[in-house]
């Protein structure tokens, strides 16, 4: 008698299927993976000033784009594609199979993780070759980078799944989700030095995880002396961890309790 695969095993298989389906959508692949690199090329070419001793704008911008990439690849992509899958009945058909619901979510998480790894590699390579972006030399900073990527990806994935219930249709999902992401990017210090933004923008951004992800990434890629230019005059690494965990719990809660497999 054949042993029934576990939910985790099925999730890994589902992840492989998600990756193959994503790879077939060439326009989506190019936009998702290369968009941060394109932005780096534009902003790095336009803004060549040094914003602090030993800190170029490109160095500052790479930190923001990695954090933003976590949101784009996880939250935005899932909050748009899941309603589209729901519209065509794909989720309803999956729900009717023996595959556990958790396997579907594991598959999505695998797709996000692989996409993010490729995106980071492209940003690193492009930044090193063309804009002189410097990589961290301390082990502690690479450890911080690792947990920021893992926790940020998990948080973004959970929130993207949770928010997928908001768009009423797949066709209108992009119109609902994309403006939210763009506004948060402007408010969270992705495109501009965070402390140069109006105070009310800083306070609003501090509610959401993207601000903390960008600040965490700055602690990795910028010298420790730059921490004095942050709002709290420090990197607030512990607080960043706490807020990301809080948003992860919120995302998981609403994903489990409110997720819709078919249209109302």
TrEMBL record:
<dbReference type="InterPro" id="IPR051784">
    <property type="entry name" value="Nod_factor_ABC_transporter"/>
</dbReference>
<feature type="transmembrane region" description="Helical">
    <location>
        <begin position="145"/>
        <end position="166"/>
    </location>
</feature>
<keyword id="KW-1003">Cell membrane</keyword>
<protein>
    <recommendedName>
        <fullName>Transport permease protein</fullName>
    </recommendedName>
</protein>
<keyword id="KW-0472">Membrane</keyword>
<dbReference type="InterPro" id="IPR013525">
    <property type="entry name" value="ABC2_TM"/>
</dbReference>
<keyword id="KW-0812">Transmembrane</keyword>
<dbReference type="GO" id="GO:0046677">
    <property type="term" value="P:response to antibiotic"/>
</dbReference>
<feature type="transmembrane region" description="Helical">
    <location>
        <begin position="105"/>
        <end position="133"/>
    </location>
</feature>
<dbReference type="GO" id="GO:0140359">
    <property type="term" value="F:ABC-type transporter activity"/>
</dbReference>
<keyword id="KW-0046">Antibiotic resistance</keyword>
<keyword id="KW-0813">Transport</keyword>
<dbReference type="InterPro" id="IPR047817">
    <property type="entry name" value="ABC2_TM_bact-type"/>
</dbReference>
<feature type="transmembrane region" description="Helical">
    <location>
        <begin position="29"/>
        <end position="47"/>
    </location>
</feature>
<dbReference type="InterPro" id="IPR000412">
    <property type="entry name" value="ABC_2_transport"/>
</dbReference>
<dbReference type="Pfam" id="PF01061">
    <property type="entry name" value="ABC2_membrane"/>
</dbReference>
<dbReference type="GO" id="GO:0043190">
    <property type="term" value="C:ATP-binding cassette (ABC) transporter complex"/>
</dbReference>
<comment type="similarity">
    <text>Belongs to the ABC-2 integral membrane protein family.</text>
</comment>
<feature type="transmembrane region" description="Helical">
    <location>
        <begin position="240"/>
        <end position="256"/>
    </location>
</feature>
<feature type="transmembrane region" description="Helical">
    <location>
        <begin position="59"/>
        <end position="84"/>
    </location>
</feature>
<keyword id="KW-1133">Transmembrane helix</keyword>
<feature type="domain" description="ABC transmembrane type-2">
    <location>
        <begin position="27"/>
        <end position="262"/>
    </location>
</feature>
<feature type="transmembrane region" description="Helical">
    <location>
        <begin position="173"/>
        <end position="194"/>
    </location>
</feature>
